[in-house]
């Protein structure tokens, strides 16, 4: 429980850091092609990752989302909600098979394995992991994240410690690369919109796995910040080696091969794992969207999506990024606008709900302690808080009780835990409950 926000953060990074970022191909075509100005664009990209990482995971927690449609139906007009639903399904499928193509390129560049075979290996793994439970899946998504962070920071340190570079010459070489967009500003907006499309569905689902909004906020923010750090480190390393790697499908892998062959092997496996993470998340979000809550149906859809994605992956990784990503990025701008506007509109409600759930957890914890007595007033408050929550009432109650059990099992001093993590203002809580109940009654009368 104590490190749950880190689990969310690492899983979120695993979704975002896929074939493009961990390989460096996205960074070449979107940012480094503009030379030194492109590095400033990467810095701004990191800021957007932190802001929207927090927003997306928090919305998933607030609505206890099982798929992206459940959130969009609440925060957007039905017309825009429907458009976003279609865009995300199409976008997730397209980016999914681009990731699979990246898996093939990765194994081909490092080991000489035919790209089609590498893509097939990745596709089979995706289908197999779909038969695990979600807690295990979340663990899989985050397991390689610390590894790639250490690797990228090590590569950056190796690249710059004790060495100097002619940045004017590097800038001139970088500008010979064909850009995906016309200028840096468009690249930042377009590329982050693409990242949001990659991560939003799974970010909602990740947020929906936790009850406490504070944990979701912290996990999303940490995940976004670390994505920014990873991207910045990779960008500086590629820029310093731009002459040697500008034509490679996997620029980062080309750099690593110059450091040590065994390090390159380890990096190739790690990149493959991250590609798998992203591809799995994209396909999984599609399957969850159309499964209607049925695990069996979800797995059947997953297998069909994986098979279709494998066929489409033969378009070639580098070509697919140059052609498909800008189009998907423009489609994702609408997503960013809707998310940001909804965040401003819902911010007060989210803060209120955060303290409501804290109070529910306090009451539930009190009920589990033999030496404590839950009053009728507290029982009524627990019921009222669950009724006015944006989450489904019975599901929220069950999840509150499950979270309580986990806290009881993993905490020695319950009172200390409550004081440090579940502080509330009872008077303010009751006032907010009364206001919201009055508002609901007025709506019913109308």
UniProtKB/TrEMBL annotation:
<feature type="transmembrane region" description="Helical">
    <location>
        <begin position="262"/>
        <end position="286"/>
    </location>
</feature>
<feature type="transmembrane region" description="Helical">
    <location>
        <begin position="222"/>
        <end position="242"/>
    </location>
</feature>
<feature type="transmembrane region" description="Helical">
    <location>
        <begin position="191"/>
        <end position="215"/>
    </location>
</feature>
<keyword id="KW-0472">Membrane</keyword>
<dbReference type="InterPro" id="IPR038728">
    <property type="entry name" value="YkvI-like"/>
</dbReference>
<feature type="transmembrane region" description="Helical">
    <location>
        <begin position="40"/>
        <end position="63"/>
    </location>
</feature>
<feature type="transmembrane region" description="Helical">
    <location>
        <begin position="111"/>
        <end position="132"/>
    </location>
</feature>
<feature type="transmembrane region" description="Helical">
    <location>
        <begin position="139"/>
        <end position="161"/>
    </location>
</feature>
<feature type="transmembrane region" description="Helical">
    <location>
        <begin position="298"/>
        <end position="317"/>
    </location>
</feature>
<feature type="transmembrane region" description="Helical">
    <location>
        <begin position="83"/>
        <end position="105"/>
    </location>
</feature>
<keyword id="KW-0812">Transmembrane</keyword>
<protein>
    <submittedName>
        <fullName>Uncharacterized membrane protein YkvI</fullName>
    </submittedName>
</protein>
<keyword id="KW-1133">Transmembrane helix</keyword>
<feature type="transmembrane region" description="Helical">
    <location>
        <begin position="323"/>
        <end position="344"/>
    </location>
</feature>
